[in-house]
Amino acid sequence: MAETRLGAHAYGKVGIRLAKVERAGDRHTFHDLTVQVRLEGDFAVAYTGADNSTSLPTDTMRSTAYVLAADLPLTETERYLEALGGRLLSVVPAATAAHTEAVVHGWDRLAVSGAPDGHPHAFRRGTADATASVTSRRDRPAEVRSGLTGLTLAKTTGSGFAGFLTDEFTVLPETGDRILATAVEAEWTWLRPPGSYAAARPVVQAAVEEVFATRYSPSVQSTLHAAGEAVLAAVPEIATVSFRLPNRHHIRVDLTPFGRAGEVFTVPDRPYGLIEGTVERA
Amino acid sequence: MAETRLGAHAYGKVGIRLAKVERAGDRHTFHDLTVQVRLEGDFAVAYTGADNSTSLPTDTMRSTAYVLAADLPLTETERYLEALGGRLLSVVPAATAAHTEAVVHGWDRLAVSGAPDGHPHAFRRGTADATASVTSRRDRPAEVRSGLTGLTLAKTTGSGFAGFLTDEFTVLPETGDRILATAVEAEWTWLRPPGSYAAARPVVQAAVEEVFATRYSPSVQSTLHAAGEAVLAAVPEIATVSFRLPNRHHIRVDLTPFGRAGEVFTVPDRPYGLIEGTVERA
Amino acid sequence: MAETRLGAHAYGKVGIRLAKVERAGDRHTFHDLTVQVRLEGDFAVAYTGADNSTSLPTDTMRSTAYVLAADLPLTETERYLEALGGRLLSVVPAATAAHTEAVVHGWDRLAVSGAPDGHPHAFRRGTADATASVTSRRDRPAEVRSGLTGLTLAKTTGSGFAGFLTDEFTVLPETGDRILATAVEAEWTWLRPPGSYAAARPVVQAAVEEVFATRYSPSVQSTLHAAGEAVLAAVPEIATVSFRLPNRHHIRVDLTPFGRAGEVFTVPDRPYGLIEGTVERA
Amino acid sequence: MAETRLGAHAYGKVGIRLAKVERAGDRHTFHDLTVQVRLEGDFAVAYTGADNSTSLPTDTMRSTAYVLAADLPLTETERYLEALGGRLLSVVPAATAAHTEAVVHGWDRLAVSGAPDGHPHAFRRGTADATASVTSRRDRPAEVRSGLTGLTLAKTTGSGFAGFLTDEFTVLPETGDRILATAVEAEWTWLRPPGSYAAARPVVQAAVEEVFATRYSPSVQSTLHAAGEAVLAAVPEIATVSFRLPNRHHIRVDLTPFGRAGEVFTVPDRPYGLIEGTVERA
After folding, report:
1. Cα–Cα distance between C98 and A252 in angstroms, integer?
2. Contacts of C218 in chain A (CB under 8 A)
3. Which of A88, B40, D130, D245 has the fewest Cβ atoms within 10 Å of its own Cβ atom?
4. Is the dihedral of CA B234, B238, B240, B242 positive or negative?
5. Per the CB < 8 Å rule, is D96 touching C149?
6. Distance CA D16, CA B74 (A)
7. What are the φ and ψ backbone dihedral angles of A178, each rounded to 5 degrees?
8. Cα dist from C6 to A224, A240, B11, C53, D197, whole Å
């Protein structure tokens, strides 16, 4: 082997997905972050030998991110990151610098009837895209389908899942209060051409959002069906409406090993439930 | 070889990126679509032999999408797709069905001072994410950086690029009227901790949007600098502000071979210009 | 509300990441799958009412995928999916059809010295890309950096992590036998221009792969350093070599609630550890 | 406005997709790069004023990347980047540094019968993934489909497209020699269960690759059909085979404005043709 030495080195955790609900009475704040941590310092023994005694596991960095999210308000992200970096310096003697970063994913309160300041616990992220799809054949009218995609919604209460079928592989506990989050994909067909395809789309979206926000959800299936009924009620020219609703699970982090309560969630990218259904006029 | 026959088959074009500006006086509408086309029918000779006489090139499908976008209003996407499907059936005798689809990417008018109904030609898509970044070291204050990412903006006029350096590989024509589109990534440092990091962020965003919307852009560089000046003027605690601005090129489609004018653009994913710069207090 | 009825509907689980190690003496087989499940049938009560009694949770579908992966050989993916679909039909009376799908991610055995049939427990996926980076300045030689990216490696044993720093937020258990998987990103600088930049790249890759495959890894850090030493020994013109090694965690699924043992792992996309370091000539 | 000054700044072009064919008799080398360029220097007048006279357009950077790819061998990527950076410094007086980077996407020669050193002009990139899909119903055998996805293939000659249907929107020229590139997605059904599903997959892949490499392609459709026939001939238990073949267009860069010939191509991400078809036993 050549004569070598260890140069600059660092380690950390990337992509810590973290959500938190802060409740002020009935009015909730929903924080949705992706956090990363990177430690610089003298960790040479871990590199040049088999000595991990200077290395705090990156798994612990993740736990620390969750615990501090429970302990602190998250409105001022910078203060949370300062506390996170300070904590890591305090428990890792070899660290000379802690770099902490976050992307805070923006959510807006849903505007629904009777909630002048926005809904207390239902939110939308970003702008949905419109979709349209036409099948043209000779000597017959074109089949037109219209839709919405990427209508990203979340509610921090008013959702549960209980009374489900179980078998010996079922470990999921029942719940009467969970986060429900999805990205609505909707497509509808037409009884007859409407005055304006474009004008119907916000009516559909408003109907879906109203149901999502204001109705208790005993399952994604039930919310899907109620949203379909609302769409058919709102736009008389629509014949059928189909939904694909991914269930973007928010998993409550178990903070009891750390002596904390607090509504902190992790948000895995995969796997996710996918609920599909069509509601038609009878 | 085994005895075989051709079963179901189809072909088409996927991912046709298409933007269009419709001008009603000074007030512009900005359409931004991704279109796809799929033809079913009896194209067997192209598969089983070397006979392409039934196959309209997918390149022509793309041209057709552009030409019809020039010819038709795009507000009712479904009508545009009907026309596109009908056209393809009319020129492809072997086709029995044309499936046309579009995703319409949503843009909202910017809300800037003096434009009660939204800005006439400046738009935002979606919701920007907040970013924050902290470097903690022992025995010294943490370095805090705050930012925005994914602030996606477009304006359909009020932008040009001329008087640039040229060499023998330069073929870009000068222009005094082009689409300017970007996804702002901004990060700022602090002279001193503000009362609220979170409260400063919408002030920064509003300053950037105001400059983007209301000031003629002779280059991305110039817009970057003016936005930086506006940020420093708006938030006195900010020390420096850095931007990374991808130049999301909108390339005017040359419709003259088809006898059309019309402001139809294609939007390549890559390559793109990337303009960076920091503005500091003197 | 309009008179409506429920039409076609289905539900399931998408994106179940699943790895399995099958050991035949020292020679391991590494299976890496992404599975999805979709049930059709009469689940109307879940949609039209609040009655979940026909719905097996999608979380249970995931558990079932893991349990059957433990129970069955995975070489014939189709037989595993048949069993998975059959099982779900057997426990969900309302289901009329179960659609099960898998993508099997391909891994090749590493070719290292002394292993004529490929390494018994070290694998590579796909083809790495080469990278190059040059900084040119006036009146001085260009700075050249060469690299590799996307060199995706896994080993199913010969890796552990123990003796690490702990605090009260540490819950990670020590291990002497875990899966180690990463996508190597390497970049090196040059003492002097080599005869061929291109010819050096496979020498670097072989050195990295040899270390990865044949040396016990007490930490990612240690493997990084040993790989760096091997690179500097193998190519005398290289001055320094830097690595970024994401730790693609494979989490052993706890099958004890289901009365199974078996080495089944889940593979979260995020978060992941990221280990960086540079090795230089002394 | 506050008193400000311009700090660090830079600009350039990201994501320049570039392929090149180098012919040594019948044996071709296929280079596939993504290049980026970044200039540092004193470009202040472009930022603080409306003066673009120091700014070479990023569009010219792209042209320069193409022209130099035509002029130089690409085997030593580093030397190409040095030339690119040097050229940009020479024509941009304000630039003090040019950073040039490339990712070189790896392609391996196909191993087909009668080509002991690999095929002279047909290539594969990476490792295909296996797919499997099963529909289980009560009281009837499961329907099994097997497949391949991500089998990325290219050939640098032996492909053309001519004699096609035209209309007044057709501008595509006929060609008898073009690059053909695709990522094969194949799925097949079974007459009866084979001895091994897994063992059939490499037989299918080899049949597809042999057709792709050795048979002149008058269209993607024709290659699809011939590949289907070869699959049915190779595996007697297969009933039908369906393909989805994206046509990853390689567009020859017109270098005549720059006085160059040379086979340099650009590779747009979108749009792309998509050719589908099923071949069945008669």
Report:
1. 30
2. 50, 52
3. B40
4. negative
5. no
6. 31
7. -140, 165
8. 10, 10, 34, 17, 39
**Cβ(B49)–Cβ(B65) below 8 Å:** no
What pLDDT, in 10s, does the model give residues A29-85? 999 999 999 999 999 999 999 999 999 999 999 999 999 999 999 999 999 999 999
Query: Exposed/middle/buried for A15, CB within 10 Å: 0-12, 13-18, 19+?
Result: middle
Backbone torsions φ then ψ of A203, nearest 5 degrees: -65, -45
Q: Domain residues of chain D, as ranges? A: 10-104, 109-249+259-280
Angle among Cα A29, A33, A34 to the nearest 5 degrees reads 170
pLDDT digits (tens), chain D, 282 positions: 679 999 999 999 999 999 999 999 999 999 999 999 999 999 999 999 999 999 999 999 999 999 999 999 999 999 999 999 999 999 999 999 999 999 999 999 999 888 889 999 999 999 999 999 999 999 999 999 999 999 999 999 999 999 999 999 999 999 999 999 999 999 999 999 999 999 999 999 999 999 999 999 999 999 999 999 999 999 999 999 999 999 999 999 999 999 998 899 999 999 999 999 999 999
Taking an 8 Å cut-off on Cβ atoms, the answer to whether B46 and D219 are in contact is yes
For residue A137, list chain B residues with Cβ-Cβ distance below 8 A. 89, 96-97
Are the C-beta atoms of D102 and D35 separated by less than 8 Å?
A: yes
pTM of the predicted model, to two decimals?
0.96
Asked if D154 contacts D122 with a C-beta cutoff of 8 angstroms, the reply is: yes
Equal fold, A10-104 vs A109-280: no
Residue C174 distance to chain D (closest CA, Å) = 34
**A-contacting chains (≥3 CB pairs under 8 Å):** B, C
For the D109-249+259-280 domain, the top CATH level (class) is alpha beta
Q: How far is the CA of A103 from the CAs of A17, A36, B42, B129, C109, in angstroms? A: 10, 9, 52, 7, 38
Residue labelled with tokens 């202040």: D44
Closest C-alpha to C190, from C232, C156, C149 = C232
Q: What is the pLDDT of residue A1?
A: 66
Nearest-CB residue to A137 (from B96, B128, B146): B96
The whole-angstrom separation of Cα C99 and Cα D143 is: 9
Most C CBs within 10 A among A59, A66, A250, A252, hence the mutation to make, goes to A59
3-class SS of residue A183: strand
Where do runs of H (alpha helix) occur along B103-249? 197-214, 220-234
DSSP string, A47-85: HHSS--TT---HHHHHHHHHHHHHHS-SSSHHHHHHHHH
Contacts of A24-27 with C-beta under 8 Å, sequence gap 24+, read: A26/A120, A26/A121, A27/A120, A27/A121
Reported ipTM: the value is 0.95
Place of tokens 């309560």: A261
Confidence class of residue B137 from pLDDT cuts 50, 70 and 90? very high
Mutate to test the interface with D, among C61, C136, C145, C189 (most CBs of D within 10 A): C136
What's the token pair of residue C102?
Answer: 């898998």
Q: In this structure, what DSSP letter does residue D261 have? A: -
Q: What would the two tokens of residue D12 be?
A: 């350039």
Give the homologous superfamily in CATH for domain A109-280: Urate Oxidase; (3.10.270.10)
In CATH terms, the fold of domain C109-248+260-280 is Urate Oxidase (3.10.270)
Query: Is residue D116 helix, strand or coil?
Result: coil
End-to-end Cα separation, chain D, in angstroms: 79
